[in-house]
Design a protein that fits this description.
Layout (H helix, E strand, L loop, with lengths): L5 H6 L7 E4 L6 E5 L5 E9 L2 E10 L4 H16 L4 H10 L2 H16 L2 H19 L9 H13 L3 H20 L26 H11 L3 H13 L3 H5 L6 E2 L4 E4 L10 E4 L2 H8 L20 H12 L7 H13 L4 H8 L8 H6 L5 H20 L10
Antiparallel strand pairs: 1-2, 2-3, 3-4, 5-6, 6-7
Helix pairs in contact: 4-5, 5-7, 6-7, 8-12, 8-16, 9-11, 9-13, 13-14, 14-16
C-alpha cells in the first residue's frame, strides 16, 4: 500500500471487506475504510501487554494531519503506561447526573447542614442536571456554563446566578479532586453579577407602622414582630419548634443544625416576646408559628400584604435583623454583645479570640434584648416603657 496522503485518504476505493490501512509516518495509526465507503481513524497500541484500539473519529471531520496529531497524543499516553481507551470509557460513564449524585452524597452530606444541602441539591438539579444530565461531565464546556448563568441574569435573577455559579464551581472542583475530570470548565469564569451589601434599616416611624400592620396579620404578623424583638434570621424563627422554647426560662435554644454558622445559639426572650409566643394559636404540636400544622411559609405573598397594609415597601425581612442590631447599638449595647445576639462568629470573635473566648454573654444578651424591646414598646406606643404589653 502506498504512503498515506491527503489525496490517497480521499480516493482509496472501498472493497467488499473492511480495510485497515496503516500510516507509514505514524506507526499505530490506521485509516479504516468500510465497504460502504465511510472512512474513520483508529490507533492501535498495547496496555499491560494486551492490544487496545482507540477510535479517533470519522473522515473528513478529522483529516490526515489532525489524525496524526491526535494519534500521537494517544501513543504518548500509552507509552506513559496509561490506557486512553479505558480513560475515555470511564469519562463517558461519568455523566453529569451521576457525578452530581456522587458529589451530594460524598461531599454535600458530609459537609453541609440540612438546609444548605437542600439548597445545593436544588440548584444543581435545576441548573446543571436539567440541562446536561445525560452528557459526560468531561464534555461540559465553559461556554455552556456561561450561557446558563447569563440566562439566569437575563431573567432578573442575578443572585440566583451567583448561587448557581458557586455550587457549580464546588461541583467541578470536587470532580477534579476525584480525578473524574482534568480541569474545571469554571476556571477563569467570574461571578456573573455584582452583589452590593444591603445597609437598609427601618426608621422609628417605619418600624411603628410595620409593627402595627403586622399586629393585624395573625401568625405571620407575630413572626414579623418576633424578628423585630429578637434580631434573628427569618428561617430560624419561622421554623421554631416548641422543644426549642422554654417560656419559664424565657429562652430559645437553637441546635447547631438549625443555624447558619453551625454554632448552637441561645436567644433570651424579653417579656414582650414571651407575650407574643403565649398569645399564638396552637395550630401544631411541633411548630410554634404554624397555619396548617407545618411551619409557616408563603413569605412572598404575605410580605406583599404587609407592604400594602403599612405603606412601607422598599425593605425585606432581613432588614429587621439589621434594624435591631443598629437599634441596640444606638442604645449603648456593646458590639461583642450584639454579635453574640446575632450569633456571629466573625468580627469580635474571629480567629484566636473565638477559640479562647468562652464567655457566653447570657446576662448581657438578656439585658440588651430587654432594653431593645422596651425601646420598641416606646416607639410603638409613644410612651416610655417599663414593660408594655405590645399586643
Amino acid at each position: 500500500m502506498a504512503k498515506l496522503t491527503s489525496r490517497a485518504v480521499e480516493t482509496i476505493k472501498p472493497t467488499a471487506l473492511r480495510q485497515e490501512i496503516p500510516d507509514s509516518l505514524l506507526p499505530g495509526l490506521y485509516l479504516i475504510v468500510q465497504p460502504s465507503g465511510a472512512r474513520s481513524w483508529a490507533v492501535r497500541y498495547r496496555h499491560n501487554g494486551r492490544p487496545r484500539k482507540h477510535t479517533l473519529g470519522s473522515y473528513p471531520a478529522i483529516d490526515l494531519k489532525s489524525a496524526r496529531a491526535l494519534g500521537t497524543k494517544v501513543l504518548r499516553a500509552a507509552a506513559e503506561g496509561r490506557d486512553p481507551t479505558g480513560e475515555r470509557q470511564e469519562q463517558r460513564a461519568n455523566t453529569v447526573a451521576q457525578v452530581v449524585a456522587q458529589f451530594l452524597v460524598k461531599h454535600g452530606q458530609r459537609r453541609y447542614r440540612p438546609r444548605t444541602f437542600a439548597e445545593a441539591e436544588r440548584l444543581l438539579k435545576q441548573n446543571v442536571v436539567a440541562h446536561w444530565g445525560h452528557q459526560p461531565i468531561a464534555s461540559i464546556t465553559r461556554k455552556q456554563l456561561r450561557d446558563m448563568l447569563d440566562r439566569l441574569v437575563a431573567n432578573d435573577t442575578p443572585m440566583l446566578a451567583n448561587r448557581a455559579h458557586s455550587i457549580a464551581r464546588k461541583l467541578f472542583g470536587w470532580a477534579v479532586e476525584q480525578e473524574i475530570i482534568e480541569v474545571s470548565p469554571l476556571v477563569g469564569l467570574k461571578v456573573p453579577a455584582e452583589e452590593s451589601t444591603r445597609d437598609r434599616i427601618l426608621t422609628d416611624q417605619e418600624l411603628r407602622v410595620v409593627w402595627r400592620a403586622a399586629g393585624q396579620m395573625g401568625v405571620y404578623g407575630s413572626l414579623v414582630q418576633l424578628l423585630i424583638l429578637t434580631g434573628q434570621r427569618r428561617g430560624e424563627i419561622a421554623g421554631l419548634t416548641w422543644s426549642e422554647v422554654d417560656l419559664d426560662k424565657r429562652l430559645i435554644s437553637l441546635p447547631r443544625e438549625r443555624v447558619k454558622n453551625d454554632h448552637a445559639h441561645e436567644i433570651p426572650l424579653s417579656p414582650q416576646a414571651v407575650d407574643l409566643i403565649e398569645a399564638l394559636p396552637r395550630k401544631s404540636e411541633r411548630y410554634v408559628l404554624s397555619l396548617r400544622g407545618g411551619p409557616i411559609g408563603g413569605f412572598g405573598k404575605l410580605k406583599a400584604r404587609l407592604d400594602k397594609a403599612c405603606g412601607v415597601t422598599d425593605w425585606v425581612l432581613h432588614d429587621l435583623r439589621r434594624t435591631a442590631a443598629s437599634g441596640m447599638a444606638r442604645l449603648g449595647v456593646a458590639l461583642p454583645v450584639i454579635e453574640k445576639i446575632l450569633n456571629h462568629v466573625s468580627g469580635s470573635f474571629a480567629g484566636v479570640v473565638g477559640i479562647y473566648q468562652r464567655h457566653d454573654f447570657a446576662g448581657e444578651k438578656r439585658a440588651a434584648l430587654e432594653k431593645w424591646a422596651d425601646h420598641v414598646s416606646t416607639i410603638v406606643t409613644g410612651k416610655a416603657a417599663k414593660v408594655v404589653r405590645l399586643r
